[in-house]
Design a protein that fits this description.
The radius of gyration is 16 Å and the shape is elongated. The protein is mainly alpha-helical and 69 residues long. The two termini are 15 Å apart. It is 90% helix and 0% strand.
Amino acid sequence: MMIIKRTGIVSYSLAILLSAIWWLAMPSYLDFMTNIESVFALAYEYHLYAVLLPLVGVGAYWLDGIFLV
């Protein structure tokens, strides 16, 4: 039971860290990926979904690793 708790803490901590990095790096990453202004504007409009994705998905991947291994 302790290993489940510890892996959950690590998983969620890494998801929070990844989301924070993604939040901070998104503008420069988008500049690196495209120089088309309309693509940049559309991608930046949806950047919140990309930032929240690790936080939303971590539970599914964590539980998948616990119950299917």
